[in-house]
Amino acid sequence: MGHRRADRQLRAADRRRTRLRAAVEDRSRAALRDAQPALRARIDHAHEQPALRRLADARAPEQTRLAPLFAILEKAQADSLGGELNTTIKDRYFASACATPGLVFPRLFRLNTHHLAKLETGHKIFYERLIGSAMNAPFDFPRQLGLVEQGQFIIGYFQQRQNLYTKREHAPQEAALL
Questions:
Q1: What's the pTM?
Q2: CB of 155 closer than 8 Å to CB of 65
Q3: Which of 2, 84, 99, 156 could form a disulfide with 67 if both were Cys (CB 3.0 to 4.6 A apart)?
Q4: 75 located within any domain
Q5: How far is CA 42 from CA 11, 16, 24, 123, in A?
Q6: Residue 3 domain-assigned?
Q7: Range of lowest pLDDT (3-12, 38-47, 130-139)
Q8: Domain assignment of residue 73, given as a range
């Protein structure tokens, strides 16, 4: 008799867990569905403008300005240490930067000062300008980002990363910096 009761209780607990999981998934799908037009607009808008002009948009929400900044910090680390990286800042800090940028970005900036110190002067100036253009207007690092904002952060990061690794025809002034 005791086994049947325990089995019923386990099945009931499984059903509750399943219903809870389904409710969370439905809520997540609804949030993504609501955010998709805004995310699509951001993706389309990103392909129309060069990287620096897109970074200079001071009206953009913090998460869309922090994501390119993270990509720039990662590229500066990779260039400063050459190909000898065991772990990048993306490997260590990406998930935390998505969820709690207010806690992670101050640490990344402290690390960045060490990375920039290892670069040649031209490269150092180039990255300082990129970082400056990403932070052209005052803003606070948000303490936490919601799921939709985390999605925007991820999209912005990969777009900026693609821009940084794409070869371009540089103006003579920019070519001197590289």
A1: 0.60
A2: no
A3: 156
A4: yes
A5: 45, 38, 26, 29
A6: no
A7: 38-47
A8: 49-177
